[in-house]
Amino acid sequence: MHIERFFVAGLAHASYVVASGHEAVVVDPERNVEGYLDYLAKNGLELRYIFLTHSHGDFVAGHAELSARSCAPILISESAPATFPHCDLKDGDRITLGSVEIEVIATPGHSPDSVCLCLLKSGALVALFSGDTLFAGDVGRPDLRDLDVGARELAGMLYDSLFGKLLRLPAEIKVYPAHGEGSLCGRKISSTPFTTIGEEAQTNWALQLNDRATFAEAMVANLPERPPYFARSVAINLRGAPFLSDFPALAHLSAAEYNQLKKNGSTILDVRPGPLFGDGHAANSLNIGIASPSFSVWSGFFVNPDLPIVLVVESGMQAQQAQVSWHALGLIRL
Questions:
Q1: What value does the mean pLDDT take over residues 62-66?
Q2: What does DSSP assign to residue 209?
Q3: What is the CATH number of the domain that holds 287?
Q4: Which residues of the chain form beta strands (DSSP E)?
């Protein structure tokens, strides 16, 4: 058995390939699926299943394209109103992968459709893929969805999931969360890539609040602003994102084309370093440096996905980097 972590720094998003024998699964795939396909081919692995621990809001996932290119089915909670072809996951379900098993734990709270995945070897629990329910040093925010269920009610569900289910698992179990430090899905996420149930029980600030009402109150207090693109990402993920290969390449604009787009209200985004932007830039343009680790997050806050985007760059590489980030946020549409 082997677990391989894939990490998208700008979004602090972690996904995983779990392999046993010649079979593998992918948990919470990122938008660009080439890395998984290359890894599977290099290691002679057959992709059996694609798991989503929930319908993500902070990024657009690559489950639809990965499924189409590998013929592996997508598994997601029965509580998720997904419209793409998928198989429902129920609490207590077990899926065989080579010589190991994956057991589903329904853990609503961060979202109503959140699940965690237990990895068992010879019947013994060895790892937990905790999605956005439990992080190293933090727990998932309950306020990131536009739902009839309010954040306070979801916070109560999160308490039940954490204290009634996850904290009852063996203390030595290694935990593989879907996000690291810098993600907006939590508030105090550690830079540590992995953790254990015992470590979190001892040190995680939220897990020291063992009264349900006190916990729920803390979960909805002093929350950072929710980026406007989150609701859009959830909607895209529930129907499955278009394939990256279907998008046209970025095109150079003539002066006339640029002027027309600017006249029509397009966003002029300058991704050059701040000093270069300060030396001279187009009127009414926005500067978010592509080199910043927060480029994706700030783009999600300030770039309107309903308007065309005009890029000002130093190089084609900068344009490609921006395009990759926007695809991950769902800011580019066919």
A1: 97
A2: -
A3: 3.40.250.10
A4: 2-8, 13-20, 23-27, 46-51, 74-77, 87-89, 94-97, 100-106, 115-121, 124-131, 134-135, 138-139, 174-177, 195-196, 267-270, 286-287, 309-312
According to DSSP, the β-strands at 174-177 and 138-139 are unpaired
Structure-model confidence comparison of residues 282 and 22, the more confident one: 22
**3-state percent helix, strand, coil for the chain, nearest multiple of 5:** 30, 25, 45
For residues 144 and 261, membership in a common domain is answered with no
Whether residues 66 and 151 fall in one domain: yes
Residue 334 lies in a domain: no
Query: Cβ–Cβ contacts within 10 Å for residue 191, how many?
Result: 10
Q: How far is CA 255 from CA 83, 163, 171, 258, 319, in A?
A: 42, 60, 62, 5, 18
Read off the CATH number of the domain in which 55 is found.
Answer: 3.60.15.10
Domain interval for residue 86: 2-238
Q: Which residues contact 182 (CB under 8 A, 6 or more apart)?
A: 12, 189, 293, 294, 297
- Pair 203, 259 in one domain: no
Question: What pLDDT, in 10s, does the model give residues 118-147?
Answer: 999 999 999 999 999 999 999 999 998 766
Do 116 and 45 share a structural domain? yes
Structure-model confidence comparison of residues 329 and 168, the more confident one: 168
pLDDT, tens only, 256-307: 888 888 888 888 999 999 998 888 998 889 999 998 888 888 888 888 878 8
- Domain identity same for 282 and 168: no
